[in-house]
Amino acid sequence: MSGNINKKVKTSDMELKDRLVAINRVTKVTKGGRTFSFSAIVVVGNENGVVGWGLGKASEVTTAIAKGVEAAKKNLIKVPVINGTIPHEQNAKFGGARVFIKPASSGTGIKAGGAMRAVLESAGVHNILAKSKGSSNPHNLVKATMGALAELRDAYTVAEHRGVSLEKVFKG
Predict the structure, then answer these.
(1) Domains delineated in the chain
(2) Angle, helices 138-150/114-123, rounded to nearest 10 degrees
(3) How far is CA 74 from CA 69, 100, 102, 143, in A?
(4) 46-89: per-residue pLDDT in tens?
(5) Is the pTM above the cut of 0.85?
(6) 153-167 mean pLDDT
(7) Kind and range of the H or E element at 58?
(8) What does 15-53 look like in DSSP terms, one character per residue?
(9) What is the C-alpha separation between 117 and 62, in angstroms, rounded?
(10) Fewer Cβ atoms within 10 A, N terminus or C terminus of the chain?
(11) Around Cβ 86, how many Cβ atoms within 10 Å?
């Protein structure tokens, strides 16, 4: 993930919307009986190219979600969204989850399932084709999708890294 070095975003005065991806009830067995707690995966984004994810754990669902939102605000990344889609195809992997995202023409909508859809909607992508291969575990799927989005680079960034003009990027 060489592309996400400069992509970290600060949360100052940003209108972020949160989406709950999954809630998991976990049990700890003690000598006094079973103790239930909840873990919540939350995705936040401003629907304009900024997205982040967080995991919150607590004994109550609402507290777990609130903790997840706070954690998500701490690791936001900037995603290049051009005309409502992404600049190029990208593969990513995290654990057993493999994702493939591909730009789509206007009017296509978000063709993605489950945890991927929440991440892409929060990022502000409106037209995209996405495929989840391998594990459908929401934890790993969210992380793989975030990894794919973090590796995206638009033409301006490519030109800047190579030290050439924008026209030369498209010729070569």
Answers:
(1) 2-77 (3.30.160.20), 80-171 (3.30.230.10)
(2) 40
(3) 9, 26, 27, 15
(4) 989 899 999 999 999 999 999 999 999 998 999 999 998 999 99
(5) yes
(6) 80
(7) strand 50-58
(8) --EEEEEEEEEEEEEETTEEEEEEEEEEEEE-SSSEEEE
(9) 22
(10) C
(11) 26
Say what the pLDDT of residue 1 is: 43
Question: What DSSP designation does 104 have?
Answer: -
Contact 149, 130 (CB under 8 A): no
- What are 25's two structure tokens? 């009830």
Q: Which residue is listed with tokens 């989850």?
A: 97
Task: Give the integer Cα–Cα distance in Å for 71 and 18.
Answer: 12
- State the residue for tokens 């903790």: 67
Q: What is the DSSP letter of 105?
A: -
Helix (H, G, I), strand (E, B) or coil at 147: helix
Mean pLDDT computed over 5-33: 83
